[in-house]
Amino acid sequence: MSEELTERGFSHDDEVGGRTLRFTNSSQFQHGNENAWVAVEKYLTGRVVNAGGKQDPNVHLVLVDSGATVRISASEEQLGGEKENQLYKDVTLRVHAEQHVRTKALRNIRLIQFLTQSNEVDERALENLWKKGREAWRDVASASGWVESLRGNS
Q: Does residue 3 register a pLDDT over 60?
């Protein structure tokens, strides 16, 4: 037994503009904010799997957090100016893009800069931070007790 579905709908005639607006059971509606893209600056971390291009230089980055591959537009100067070959290395990129307000998807991603990653520790800077921390906390007898008092558990 074959059943034929009929399309149900509603029409509205615009008397001023002379246009007809038709709604059917297959109509799709989109709220104005659902297509909202905003300019953002982000830091993307991942592995460079491709970089270069003669006419449209770009970087292909496999993101650490999702495994997705994103294409980032770049200039010849940006890619050629890198002191080290970044191919197949883990990097953090500072980028400018458009991000969808609801889905968080990125588009029109453009490279601002490669950020240098260093595993070396600046001992002098670290010692200065420890010194500042000791000064800031010198009147606090117990850091954990202080936190508990903030939580109302004293």
A: no
